[in-house]
């Protein structure tokens, strides 16, 4: 063995590779225009590989969407970052998340200090997400299996995140926005999902703003009869 090539144990090699992968991941987000330090820190510390399907673990730190059970998709990190940046979550915010998926967005919201109520229509995904969230020790999360687009009695939220695209944003959801509240999701315009931001103004009226195109799957109403 050459003296100028010291032996590194497998664990040390693996740790170095992971550190390089995380650094590249964060740099790719910055290259997309994501500059919010708290958000970048959350995406650095919440390991996406824990939430990604095992067979795609090597792609977990790349900006690609990944296929999930139940015909669903794990949203690409760049889209996740854009949505969370628009949501502007602050510590202590009560957040409703519609579409738990793997629980990755849920964990990021919790890391940003939110109290999260997350609703998933597929029991299979909800059970898996619960295990993922336990692994990363995500706090202040309440998980439900149900229709996240249905009316919730007397509940108000500071922020609402829709993890998918809709042809219209249901009034059943916007009615849960408290004063100064904000909803972020995707609205299908001319057949293509675009970032949508809806805010509850001081006079109670809603203001809607359509943003850039997003790569995101449709968000379906109802509870899955199977799976």
Q: Can you describe what's shown?
A:
This protein has 227 residues and is an alpha/beta fold. It has one domain (10-213): Rossmann fold (3-Layer(aba) Sandwich). The protein has helices at 10-31, 37-45, 48-51, 77-87, 104-111, 123-135, 171-174; strands at 66-67, 73-74, 94-98, 115-120, 141-145, 157-166, 177-189, 192-200, 206-213. Strand 1 (66-67) and strand 2 form a beta hairpin. The relative contact order is 0.13. The mean pLDDT is 90.
Q: Ranges with pLDDT <50 over ≥5 residues?
A: none
Kindly report the name of the CATH homologous superfamily: Vaccinia Virus protein VP39
What is the strand tally?
Answer: 9
In total, how many domains does the architecture comprise? Answer: 1
Overall geometric form:
globular
Per CATH, the class reads Alpha Beta
Order of helices and strands: HHHEEHEHEHEEHEEE
Q: What percent of the residues sit in helical stretches (DSSP H or I)?
A: 25-40%
Keywords:
227 residues; globular; two-stranded antiparallel sheet; seven-stranded mixed beta sheet; alpha/beta; Rossmann fold
Question: What is the topology?
Answer:
Elements: H1 10-31, H2 37-45, H3 48-51, E1 66-67, E2 73-74, H4 77-87, E3 94-98, H5 104-111, E4 115-120, H6 123-135, E5 141-145, E6 157-166, H7 171-174, E7 177-189, E8 192-200, E9 206-213
Parallel strand pairs: 3-4, 3-6, 4-5, 6-7
Antiparallel strand pairs: 1-2, 7-8, 8-9
Quick overview:
This protein has 227 residues and is an alpha/beta fold.
């Amino acid at each position: 063995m050459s003296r100028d090539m010291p032996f590194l144990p497998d664990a040390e090699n693996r740790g170095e590779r992971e550190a390089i992968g995380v650094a590249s991941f964060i740099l790719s987000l910055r290259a997309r225009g994501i500059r919010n330090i708290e958000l970048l820190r959350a995406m650095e510390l919440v390991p996406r590989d824990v939430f990604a399907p095992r067979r795609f673990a090597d792609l977990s730190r790349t900006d690609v969407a990944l296929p999930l059970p139940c015909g669903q998709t794990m949203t690409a990190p760049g889209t996740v970052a854009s949505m969370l940046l628009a949501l502007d979550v602050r510590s202590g915010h009560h957040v409703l998340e519609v579409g738990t998926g793997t629980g990755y967005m849920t964990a990021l919201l919790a890391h940003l200090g939110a109290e999260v109520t997350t609703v998933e229509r597929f029991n299979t995904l909800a059970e898996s997400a619960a295990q993922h969230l336990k692994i990363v020790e995500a706090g202040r999360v309440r998980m439900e299996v149900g229709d996240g687009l249905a009316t919730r009695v007397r509940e108000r939220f500071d922020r609402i995140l829709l993890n998918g695209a809709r042809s219209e944003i249901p009034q059943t959801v916007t009615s849960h926005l408290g004063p100064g509240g904000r909803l972020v999701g995707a609205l299908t315009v001319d057949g293509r999902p675009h970032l949508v931001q809806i805010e509850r103004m001081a006079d109670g009226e809603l203001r809607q703003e359509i943003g850039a195109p997003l790569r995101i799957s449709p968000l379906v109403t109802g509870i899955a009869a199977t799976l």
